[in-house]
Each structure stands twice: as structure tokens, then as C-alpha cells.
Design a protein that fits this description.
There is one protein chain. By secondary structure, this protein is an alpha+beta fold. The protein folds into 2 domains: 148 residues, Four Helix Bundle (Hemerythrin (Met), subunit A) (Up-down Bundle), CATH 1.20.120.450; 83 residues, 2-Layer Sandwich (Nonspecific Lipid-transfer Protein, Chain A). It is 52% helix and 9% strand. A hairpin with a 6-residue loop joins strand 1 and strand 2. Helix 3 crosses helix 6, helix 3 runs parallel beside helix 7 and helix 8 crosses helix 9. The longest helix has 23 residues.
Length: 265
């Protein structure tokens, strides 16, 4: 696989670009509905501020992270909704300042942590570099919804390579979220980066294979597009089934996104 850029550098760049997009929105734009049912642009930014806070807390103070996230780990959906409501109560200027602080703190904490050092997270400890990829995935996924709500096209770069890697690493989350047993057979993923270089994950001789554009793969595993709107191809029944259920995050998957032009979440 072609080497990727440093994940912490890409995390900071992605965050700065999304922050510039929302810096001067009107009240109506903050209230604009996004493809996520019931979520406005403001919901998306409040969620990202919470993610930044939790990443920073997990790196700096694991005991405090465990205590603060206990309600979330007990009931993921209810716990996250309660924390999100706290952020939504803030005036927009305060929310933006808090997101900037949380984002910067998380970026700095991750950059200062050895890549393989385990850091507590909601679904269990992760190496610091993988947690940075999770934070980047959150920015990408919720940023997609913000871009669509504002009618601003998202420009794909090779920063998404970390999300593609995460999508392959978390293959089994999709099964566990649905009470299914993951297949024992490994998958091979062959993806084309926005720059045109090739990224490959998994054993070369695997019978179950997925290939296509990395951008489409990232939209799939963050559940931002329906598989039928993406140029991804599966070889093997298990790989084909996985394309319909893939996700990179814990918790309930929620309803599928509809086809283009008939979105539902």
C-alpha cells in the first residue's frame, strides 16, 4: 500500500477546513436540516465538539474519561443524546469557540501520544493512531452532512485514506451491531485514492474481495450513501452482504440512507 500522510496532520487539516465552512453561517444556515433525520447543521457541530472533548479527555485523563462516559457505554444512544443536548443549549458563538478548543486539544493530545499507545474509547481501548483515524472519520462523516445541508460540494483528498483503513479494520462492527456472527474468512479491499494511487488491505489471496473508489468506500462505511449509488464491486457472497451493512462506528446502525434524491436516515 502507498504510504499515507500522518493521521494527526490530516485530522487537523480536515478540522480546519470544516471550521472555515461554518465560521460565518447565518442563523438560517445553522438551522438548516441535514440528511440525518432531525439533525441541523448546529447538531452536527455540537456532536463534533463532544467528540473532540472525549478524545482529549481519553488521552489526558483515562479515569475521568471512564467516569464521564459511563452513561454512554451503558446506553450508547441515550447517553450520546443527553450529552449532545448540553451542546445544543449554547449560543452559536459559544459552541464554535468550544468546538475550536476541543478540536485543538484533541489534535495536540493525539499528536503527543505514541502511535501504538492504547487510549480508552467508547467501544474499548484503541491505539492512539487508530483513535485519530476515528476522530477524522467523525469529521468526514458529519462534515458530509454539513456540506450537503449548505449545498457546498465536498472535495475529496487522500486524507480519506485513514478512513478507508478504519473501514477495513472495523469490518466486524457491522455484524455485531446487528447481532450477527462475523465471517471467519478475511476480506481483500482494493481501493483507488482520489489522487489515483492504489490502496490495498487484507490478504492478496482472499476469496472475498471489494474494490472501487476509496471515496465511495468511505461514504459507504460512514453510511452517507446507499450502496447502489456507489461504484463498489464485491466478489463473494460474504463481501456482497457486507456492502449492505458496513459501518465504522458502534451503536445501532439506523435505517439505511435512501437512493440519491430520496434520502432518509
Amino acid at each position: 500500500m502507498t504510504a499515507m500522510q500522518d493521521v494527526c496532520v490530516d485530522l487537523a487539516t480536515e478540522g480546519a477546513e470544516l471550521a472555515r465552512l461554518v465560521a460565518d453561517l447565518s442563523p438560517g444556515q445553522w438551522s438548516a436540516p441535514t440528511p440525518a433525520a432531525g439533525w441541523t447543521v448546529r447538531h452536527q457541530v455540537a456532536h463534533l465538539a463532544l467528540v473532540g472533548h472525549l478524545v482529549d479527555l481519553g488521552v489526558r485523563d483515562p479515569a475521568a474519561f471512564e467516569a464521564e462516559t459511563a452513561p454512554v457505554r451503558e446506553d450508547f444512544e441515550t447517553g450520546m443524546a443527553a450529552r449532545l443536548a448540553e451542546g445544543l443549549a449554547e449560543p452559536v458563538p459559544d459552541l464554535l469557540r468550544r468546538w475550536a478548543r476541543c478540536r485543538a486539544a484533541a489534535e495536540q493530545a493525539l499528536a503527543a501520544t505514541p502511535r501504538r499507545e492504547p487510549v480508552p474509547w467508547l467501544a474499548g481501548p484503541l491505539p492512539a493512531s487508530v483513535l485519530a483515524a476515528v476522530a477524522l472519520m467523525e469529521l468526514f462523516a458529519h462534515g458530509q452532512d454539513v456540506h450537503e445541508a449548505l449545498g457546498v460540494p465536498y472535495v475529496f483528498t487522500d486524507r480519506i485514506g485513514h478512513i478507508a483503513f478504519l473501514g477495513t479494520r472495523t469490518r466486524d462492527l457491522a455484524y455485531r451491531a446487528r447481532g450477527l456472527e462475523p465471517p471467519a474468512e478475511p476480506f481483500r479491499f482494493e481501493l483507488t485514492a482520489p489522487s489515483g494511487v492504489s490502496w490495498a488491505f487484507g490478504p492478496e489471496d482472499a476469496g472475498q474481495r471489494i474494490h472501487g473508489p476509496a471515496a465511495d468506500f468511505c461514504l459507504l462505511v460512514t453510511r452517507r450513501r446507499h450502496r447502489d449509488d456507489l461504484a463498489l464491486t464485491a466478489v463473494g457472497a460474504a463481501a456482497d452482504h457486507w456492502l449492505g451493512i458496513a459501518q465504522t462506528y458502534p451503536g445501532r446502525p439506523g435505517p439505511d440512507r435512501g437512493r440519491i434524491g430520496q434520502y432518509r436516515v
